[in-house]
Amino acid sequence: MSFNTDISTTLENSRNTLRKIARNDNTEFSKQSVLNDMEKFVKMVTTMDETVLVPSRLMNLPQEGDDDPFNLYSMLNDLKTELLWAGEETTERGRRISDFSDTESDASSAAGDSGIDGEDERESAARAAAACRRHLRGLRRCLRHLTAAAVHLTRSYQEEVGAPV
């Protein structure tokens, strides 16, 4: 198998996994997995979206600091959509989301020419792997914070409309 075929297969497997998450299939991951955090985020935002029947009512909720509940609701839904479908002709407020993100750019430059003549491919790959691990830790942290925000927003909405919490 060639390198390009391996990457294509890996990307397709990742897309299929994310599609299963979007459909809420019962796929299990390690509790330490970024996929587990992604699954929780997607499920919680889906629950939030199903709970918030009248998003304009979020405008009546008290604002906590800079967090406007309606904007938070919209942002969480937009992030869920981007996480699941970016690169597949997804649009965000009328513009196409780039297939080549800043993170991909960082990873390409980390894996590419370092400017040091004769650098070993293993050293380059090790740097890229370390950068990937750092980004995954950051992604997991972000997903956990965003999931908590969706939980809080859902509960606040339920209290506002008098629904059971």
Automatic annotation (TrEMBL):
One of its GO terms (biological process) is regulation of lipid biosynthetic process. One of its GO terms (cellular component) is nucleus. It comes from the Eukaryota. It holds the Pfam family Spot_14. Keywords: Cytoplasm, Nucleus. Residues 90-99 have a biased composition (Basic and acidic residues). Its main location: cytoplasm. Gene3D superfamilies: 6.10.140.1610. This is Mid1-interacting protein 1A. It comes from Danaus plexippus plexippus.
